[in-house]
Amino acid sequence: MTANAADTAWIICASALVLFMTLPGLALFYGGLVRSKNVLSILIQCFAITCIASLLWLLCGYGLAFGDGGGLNSLIGSLDRALLLNVTPNSLVGTLPEPVFVMFQMTFAIITPALVIGGYAERTRFSVVLWFSALWLLLVYVPVAHWIWGGGWLAKLGVMDFAGGIVVHVNAGMAALVCAKVIGNRRGFPQVPMPPHNLPVVAMGAGMLWVGWFGFNGGSALAANGTAGMAILCTHLGACAGATAWTLIEWRQYGKPSMLGLMTGVVAGLGTITPASGFVGPLGAVAIGLSAGVVCYFATQLLKRVLHIDDSLDVSPVHGVGGIVGTLLTGVFAATALGGTGFTVQQDMVSQLGVQALGIAATAAWCGGITWLLLKVLDATLGLRVGEEGESEGLDLAEHGERGYIS
Question: Which of 28, 45, 113, 379 is a plausible cystine mate for 133, CB 3.0–4.6 Å?
Fold first, then answer.
């Protein structure tokens, strides 16, 4: 078998698009959402996580996620690709040169821990962010990626997750929720208003995420073919439907539609269509997107206004809940009778929904438990939070000695 030039060119472009989602897309989206005294901390965290995750992917992450683990292959891969010593320009994964596949999957390993920082923004030590992100990548992201995408036990059961509804969004959402609970609320939350400091920057970041998501979902076909094209079409329609539903609910509830609401609805739609994007048709994508706008909107209200959990940038109600909704609805709208491609192992809808729910539950349990343990260890060794004075003056000065804006 030889590499396919068209597939190779597309996945190289898709890799750039997914990295573009983190830098600068997520960095600007999150950076605009926090208060001005913390904007640099978000940007630094996104860049630092990109560097750390990439080096860990080289060291052992890729092999553990996608290598053949022999007798343990249902649970984890192997170290046969450690340091990428056996990855050459001539080694192949399907129709792709293996270096291209490594790079594409690396961009997913970058953005997933970067998403989690939205759950603990504006109050966490930079050293903790670095240690937590590195350990979480190896102990949570890598095993779950192997379970579903690397031929592990959930893959063998037929879990359908085209581009990361479970691997990325349920994982990141659960981790963010645990972080918000263990680290605690920002000082003053929920009594003190903490609005985004720069909504135009939020809009620019959201737009970059939207465009980058075409590589995220379309690239997950791992080929330049009709599946990639349908995934991109469904991604766009899901985003539009999510934004529409969110905006209409907000407009009705508060009398005015907000730019922040529309942008959040876009991201909710994008995250929710992710697991289904290569398995459903356009109408299924619209239905999933509308569901995202409704369910994620009320999940956000519940978390902040009722439970008073300070998931600072709404990672768990948008990405986590969206990932759950999208993963479950994949088990519905992938049915050929509803315009989908059919179920992975030809199960009926009820059986597929059961497998989808198992994948969600197993990932949430593993992620939640390991995240909690990591935070407890880091709290005992480094201390999770900056001091009261540092939080008051902002992490930009307290942790980095710089200001994002100089008047």
Answer: 113
